[in-house]
UniProtKB/TrEMBL annotation:
Pfam families: SBP_bac_3. Residues 27-250 form the Solute-binding protein family 3/N-terminal domain. Keywords: Signal. SUPFAM superfamilies: Periplasmic binding protein-like II. Residues 1-25 form the signal peptide. The lineage of its organism: Bacteria, Pseudomonadati, Pseudomonadota, Alphaproteobacteria, Rhodospirillales. This is ABC transporter substrate-binding protein. The keyword Transferase does not apply.
Amino acid sequence: MTLPFRLLSACLALLAAFVAGIARADMVTIAACENYAPYSDASLPGDGFANDLTARIMSRAGYDVSVTIMPWVRALQGTETGTFDILPSAWYTEARGRTLLFSQPIALSRLVFVKPVSSPFEFHSLDDLRGLTVGTVSGYAYTPDFLTSPLFQRTAVADIVLNLRMVAARRIDLTLDDELTLRFIIHSRAPELAPLLSLTRGVLSEQPLYVAFSRTRPDAERLVAAFDAGLARMQADGDYQRLLALHQME
């Protein structure tokens, strides 16, 4: 191999790396979780409110956007490790803050319990859960006092629908999730459970919902700034409210 040829090959390799870097800088990948309507689900317009909002804002900021729907745990882990760039519809925790950057809030999530329709249970405080078994979803960021309380038992599964079926069959006493998500899933994904289940009026917590960005990406802070600026513009010009209405979240 001659020296000029080797130099040409090296230059072409550097050019290819440069072009790939530019393409990477202009592309963002979104890890969207399944079964989290109205925020995220492949069956919804725009893959759900959070994904639709994020894709619109990042597209307007000049990025090409790719959305992949997957189970929650894979979406969270994939964004934390840098396989994906953005995780819409995430709650903040201190642990997640070490691997993810968080946007301004995009919505407020009300966490309520589901019980058998004939149950007199109502939630006021954790003491009401004494002696009960509560179904949770793996990887969800429940409040620390809920996760550590010795008053009741917690069982974890991968999907809220399984928990709903176990409550209806009285294999567990309660489960919990975002109120809007529960109403959508019960009436759209498991309508046979609707006569068997009831939601509590009391809430475990009201938690802001954020869009999270992987810290592994060198321009992560710039992505967050672009998102927050786009969100502020949409809130100011009415597009945010129109998107809420489109996704029946008003």
